[in-house]
């Protein structure tokens, strides 16, 4: 997981949000309707702008698992859930504000925004905090639903369903803080964990969800392979992407410290793109190439 710095593109994000709110007022669109407001914001006129902005912020990676995203097929994650209102969720919202100062600085609950706007005490062009339903500080890109074949999860499923996994659970917004680069670690076995167990006990809201979701067998497996590859003479993940079949085999043999490729466990050998259907596993491996540099520098 990486730190997604929402301050770098904040000016452009704010301009997009402000224009949408002005248009909403002109067209009589609601600002605080969890469904209609986001449907309007998701129209091509606006989406074409903010979709690319989020991708830039996240380097086109899933905010959870770090898989490369196909920007034509992604899920939009609301850090503070769309369903929140000041009447029902003020305490929960306070948790997000506490855990991510950038939420405090740039987001307010949509019904509160609308109330202040209607009362004439909030000015659209000068208000830094945006309604949480559309505020780009509150939006992240995540993996979409898995591709399925005949109702079954096929090999082309890259092991994730990040947004849908969360549902309405509290999301610890650590990816919106610099702590993501310090307190999140990946074990040599591919496991995801917090380096500071005192600050991040499993009883802390949001911690258990991240530990459970990001420690799926599928994710641990592909991260483990990248750890092994990071110990080899391979100079970069991009080089592996263009390597010949012979070179791939050599890197895998080096990674697993064997002179015989056939001695490598089948669970890992398939990722070298050898054999029937293995191209799908090869694509999966490359989609998580972020972990090569992470293991190199961790």
* Bulk shape: elongated
How many domains in all? Answer: 2
Portion in helices = 40-55%
Q: CA-to-CA gap between the ends?
A: 12 Å
Order of helices and strands: HHHEHHEHEEEEHHEEHHHHHHH
With strands numbered from the N-terminus, the spatial order across the biggest sheet is 1-4
Query: Which sheet architecture does the biggest sheet show?
Result: 2 strands, antiparallel
Strand-residue proportion? 5-15%
Low-confidence stretches: 149-156
Output the structural class: mainly alpha
Instruction: Count helical runs.
Output: 15
Task: Estimate the mean pLDDT confidence.
Answer: 90
Indicate the radius of gyration in whole angstroms: 21 Å
How many strands in all? 8
Tell me what you see in this structure.
There is one protein chain. The protein is mainly alpha-helical. The chain folds into two domains: about 10-140, no CATH class; about 220-295. The chain contains 15 helices and eight strands. β7 and β8 (about 190-195) form a beta hairpin. α1 packs antiparallel against α3, α10 (about 215-230) packs across α12 and α10 (about 215-230) crosses α15. The longest helix has 18 residues, at about 10-25. The radius of gyration is 21 Å and the shape is elongated. The two termini are about 10 Å apart. The model is unreliable at about 150-155 (pLDDT under 50).
């Amino acid at each position: 997981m990486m730190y997604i710095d929402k301050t770098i593109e904040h000016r452009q994000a704010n301009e997009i949000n402000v224009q949408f709110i002005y248009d909403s007022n002109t067209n009589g669109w609601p600002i605080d309707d969890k469904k209609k407001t986001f449907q309007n914001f998701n129209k091509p006129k606006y989406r074409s702008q903010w979709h690319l902005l989020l991708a830039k912020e996240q380097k086109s990676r899933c905010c959870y698992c770090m898989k490369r995203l196909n920007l034509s097929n992604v899920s939009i994650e609301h850090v503070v859930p769309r369903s929140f209102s000041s009447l029902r969720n003020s305490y929960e919202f306070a948790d997000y504000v506490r855990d991510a100062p950038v939420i405090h600085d740039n987001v307010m609950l949509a019904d509160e925004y609308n109330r202040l706007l209607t009362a004439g005490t909030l000015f659209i062009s000068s208000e830094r905090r945006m309604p949480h339903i559309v505020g780009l500080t509150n939006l992240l890109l995540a993996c979409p639903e898995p591709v399925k074949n005949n109702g079954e999860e096929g090999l082309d499923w890259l092991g994730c369903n990040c947004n849908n996994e969360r549902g309405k659970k509290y999301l610890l917004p650590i990816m919106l803080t610099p702590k993501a680069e310090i307190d999140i670690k990946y074990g040599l076995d591919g496991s995801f964990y917090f380096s500071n167990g005192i600050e991040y006990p499993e009883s802390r809201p949001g911690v258990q969800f991240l530990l459970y979701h990001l420690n799926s067998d599928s994710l641990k497996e592909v991260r483990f392979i990248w750890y092994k590859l990071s110990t080899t003479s391979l100079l970069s993940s991009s080089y592996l992407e263009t390597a010949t079949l012979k070179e791939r085999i050599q890197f895998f043999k080096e990674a697993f410290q064997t002179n015989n490729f056939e001695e490598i466990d089948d669970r890992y050998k398939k990722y070298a793109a050898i054999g029937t259907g293995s191209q799908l596993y090869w694509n999966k491996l490359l989609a998580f190439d972020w972990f090569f540099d992470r293991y190199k520098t961790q």
